[in-house]
Each structure stands twice: as C-alpha cells, then as structure tokens.
Amino acid sequence: MPNESFSLLYIHGLNSSPASQKARQLTALLQKLALEGQARVPELHHHPRHAMAQLEAAVAELGRPLLVGSSLGGYYATCLAERHGLKALLINPVVTPHRLFDGRLGTQQNLYSGETWELTEDHITALAELEVPAPRDAERYQVWLQTADETLDYRAAQSYYRSCALRIQAGGDHGFQGFAERLPALLAFAGLAPELHRDIDFSHL
After folding, report:
1. What domains are there in the chain, each with its CATH number?
2. Are 80 and 68 in contact (CB under 8 A)?
3. Which pLDDT tens digit goes with each residue over 139-150?
C-alpha cells in the first residue's frame, strides 16, 4: 500500500486518553514517518453512543483506516471493522464489556484528565447495542494478548477471536508491555514497507 493511501485510527480504552503511553508512542512513530496527518487519535467521550459518533466521523474522514483499538477501544474497533469491512489490530481487547460492570455503576475518573463522570445503566445498554458476532476473517484482524493482563482474562478474547490471527505473549499487563517494540508488526499489518522505518529506534519512542 503506498504511503498516500495509509490511514490509521487509534481507539483508546475506558478512562484512557490520547495521553496514554501506547497512544503517545504510536503518535511519535507516525511523526517520524511524516504520517501523522493521516492518522487520528481522538479523545473519546465516556458514553458509548457519543464515542461511536466520534469514531464514525473519523472513519468517514480517513476513508478506510486501519483501526487500532486497546481494551474497550478494541470492542469499538471490532464493531466498526464489522460495519465497514475494515482491518483492525486489537490490543488486550475487552469482550462483551456490558457484562462486566456488575456492582461498578457510579462515579468514574479518567486516568489522564482527572475528569469524573457517572457510569449508568444507559452506558451498559449502549455497549450491549454494539455487540457483534465473533469475527471470522483472519485476514482483517490481528489480536495481541498478554496473559498477565490484570484487568481482563485474556482467555475471553482468545476464545472470541479464535478465528482471527492471535498473537499471545506470556506475561505483560493490561497496558501491553513492549508495545513500542511491536510497532514494526503494526506497520507491516498496515501495509507499509520495512525500509520506511529501518532507521527508527523503536525502543526510544
């Protein structure tokens, strides 16, 4: 894929932001490649309906971006990929998040902005509305999991995405340790030639 047709949409997780480590590392890489203008890393609203409206607008703007989704962002990315036939790279994605919030309704706080907001039953309903059947197209998906994820049981994603290309790494955590060093694989999945980034030190992003 030539550079001019490259586009990417990064989708952060719940209570995260473009200031997260993965988002910052990816943005730094795209700046080095002079591709930052062809990528979007939106700061998402906490309510799924508002967040999906933001993401649909970004997809419309970018054309056919590679979706890169982390945690809840992986759930959003899966919904978008199935709606629009897009490629998606998912990092420790949550599966059926609407079933994981028992006893957790109430005040939440964004880890980066400090914003507080109320998690309500309407959030849960909106998340349930986005559920799609398990993807079966291994060509369009990569799913990166680390087994020591302290927030999610990686085996749920392993089962749900079993028809897709799984990359399971022992250890790690929910933030996905070693993400920067794995970015060449992300660029390859996006269709960018290795010679475009051979001089980049990924460990220092």
Report:
1. 3-196 (3.40.50.1820)
2. no
3. 999 999 999 999
